[in-house]
Amino acid sequence: MSIPLLDLNRQYEKIKPEINEEIQKVLESQYFIMGDTVRDFEEEIREYIAANFAYGCASGSDALLLALMTIDLQPGDYVITSPFTFFATGGAISRLGGIPIFLDIDPETYNLDPEQLQLFLEGEHPIHAHTNPPKEKIKAVIPVHLYGQMADMDPIMELAKAHDLYVIEDAAQSIGAKYKGRSAGTIGDFGCFSFFPSKNLGAYGDAGLITVADEQLADKANILRLHGARPKYHHKIVGINSRLDALQAAVLSVKLKYLDEWSESRREIAQRYNSLFEEAGVAETNYDGTVEDNKVYLPVEREGAPEQDGRHIYHQYTIRLKDRDGLQEKLKAKGIGNSIYYPVSLHEQECFADIGYKSEDCPLSHQASKQLISLPIFPELTKEEQTKVVDVISEYLK
Ligand SMILES: Cc1ncc(COP(=O)(O)O)c(C=O)c1O
Q1: How far apart are CA 97 and CA 200, in angstroms?
Q2: pTM
Q3: Is 89 in the pocket of ligand 1 (CB under 6 A)?
């Protein structure tokens, strides 16, 4: 029995008639760019997220780029973010000539550590010495809500306010996630979402969304995705072509109706993994900096814990262990899907070498890149499949 990391066919089989009907409607209309299908979806998703404004765009990467363009990021400006994220978070900053400042993560949630942010903004972080940015050039912070759990937003917002920074939430992996009752993408100035097919709400191609809190900034983001035009062919600012197309909007609109049900299934699957690892006697929950042999460190719900009025939506179920690479070989040999998000921390990427980071600058992110592995999780994963995954892992550890 081989077990995929993600099987989108199982999802499609369940919603095929609805999806096909909605796609057919777009084909019949021959209206592919903007139009009612896109506008209707934008309104549905805006309501779902409870955002003030929401605009579809071509990808999560473009959502980040549009947010940074909206705040008018200039070459030589600095933006603080997490090094433990998909490349797009740092790439968007660099594409505009900005300089990413990577600060280390919380080793249990893998999200930007607000204490690191405080140290840096107060000029007391060792990284400050070699980046040495003039205060007025630090423009924004991008907390990333990794794996489906939100970053600790209260202290981040407080620090951002005190230091006059925009907050751009990278919510690409966290649609429907909550922090103290508030949804990802509604706490900062912007929320950036990805509908990449493997995301919890996945399109049938590339697609993304930007949410905006302020009306004026929203208006700017809206026209930036349309080459900065208003009215058509009249350009006050230079934008890009980054629209959500009608076929994707039609697919997403069908899937959005199921999203909460799917998120709950993912939560149940995560809980079942936790119980199975505990029953197998290999589970650890308290990570104190050392990783014991033969143990699996389970995901920790902190900002995403229901007791805190939070919600982790388990885009990934990710464990930490000492011999991660050995386990990966074993899983491959047994036909069990898995993935490493992310094998190289952004502060160690070749393209950012000239910023002058060393591995030790973000040691916890570096360590996570060596010890984490993500296991199969999707709403249709069966109990038998989960048991098999845990059996193979416990057998390997013992
Ligand atoms: C954390 C994070 N940021 C940004 C992105 C970029 O989204 P997209 O692939 O839609 O461009 C992704 C998606 O892979 C992501 O996981």
Answers
A1: 31
A2: 0.98
A3: yes
